[in-house]
Each structure stands twice: as structure tokens, then as C-alpha cells.
Amino acid sequence: PYKPRQSFVKAVKRVLQSLPKETLREAHQLFLSEHDHTDAYLSLGSFSDLRPSNALLQSHMTYRNCLCAYHENINLLIKPLSKYIPWPGLHSLQAFSSTLVCCETNEECMFSQCSLCANNFENKIIKHATNFIQSVNWYQWGLK
Fold first, then answer.
1. How many domains are there within the chain?
2. 59 and 72 belong to one structural domain
3. 41, 71, 84, 100: most buried, per Cβ within 10 A?
4. Which of 5, 70, 92 is nearest to 43 (CA)?
5. Is residue 133 part of a domain?
6. Is the per-residue pLDDT at 8 higher than 80?
7. 47 and 84 fall within a common domain
8. How does residue 63 score in pLDDT terms, banded at 50, 70 and 90?
């Protein structure tokens, strides 16, 4: 079914305004997952064109541009892991960390010392694994 561009504009603005921490690509993926029941499709370019001015691009948010080896190694692991664990939280570092911890600013949560989220990896990620025999290969940054 055909949907007018106006309804896409409203939906895109709603998604982008509700997720200011997400990158444009992550917000686009969320938009597509929320509207997968329709036959209409909105490309990333069109989604970007409809972006409201108050939704900042990742390039304007320097605190989200960490390229340290630690964070990049997690990013390099998430992509191949997502092929074997069909779970929506495995599409970005932000979604992955949000799944694992109660509060990303709480040191206890980030070091798995929080009693509420210490077992989230087993409870939310591992339980969705479909193939425990398949080995997962990935690259990671290291020091020489």
C-alpha cells in the first residue's frame, strides 16, 4: 500500500526526536523495524533528508566518535556475532551496551558489579544463540 510522504515525515521525526543518542543509520534501522509491516520503504538518503534540524548528526557529536581500540574491537565483534544470534540489540555498540547494563553512566553496571544487570549477557544475548557449535571469527585491533 502507498503511504504519502507526509506520514513518513512525521514518523521519521518521531523516531529521531525520541532517540537523540542514536546515529542516523541506527535511527533509520529502528524506523525500518518499526514499519516492517508496510510495503513502503524509505531509503537512508530520504530518511536523512527528512531529519529535523534538532536531530544532530554523529559528526556533530564528538563524544560519540570514540575510535579507541577497545570500542572498535567490540564493534568488530558485534557484526559477526549478529549473524549467529538473531537479536535486535546486536546492531550497534550503543544498542549492545544498552542491553547489557542498567545505566551506561554507572561504573558498577559497566564493570558487571551491579546485581540487577550482572547476568544480562547470559540472559539477554546467549539465550538467543541458535548454534553453539559454530565458531565465530572476527578481527580485532592490537598493539605491535
1. 2
2. no
3. 100
4. 5
5. no
6. no
7. no
8. very low
Would you say 58 and 24 are in contact if contact means Cβ atoms under 8 Å apart? Answer: yes
Q: How far is CA 66 from CA 6, 15, 32, 58, 98, in A?
A: 35, 24, 26, 11, 17
Q: How confident is the model over 29-47, as pLDDT tens digits?
A: 877 887 776 677 788 888 8
Within this chain, do residues 72 and 108 fall inside the same structural domain, yes or no? Answer: yes
For 43-98, the three-class secondary structure string (H helix, E strand, C coil) is CHHHHHHCCCCCCCCHHHCHHHCCCCHHHHHHHHHHHHHHHHCCCCCCCCHHHHHH
**56 and 11 part of one domain:** yes
The amino acid sitting at 12 is V
Top-confidence range, 25-39, 53-67, 110-124, 128-142? 110-124
The residues, any chain, with a CB within 8 Å of residue 109's CB and separated by 6 or more, are 101, 102, 103, 116, 117
Regarding pTM above 0.90, the answer is no
138 in a domain, yes or no? no
The pLDDT score that the predictor gives to residue 115 is 92
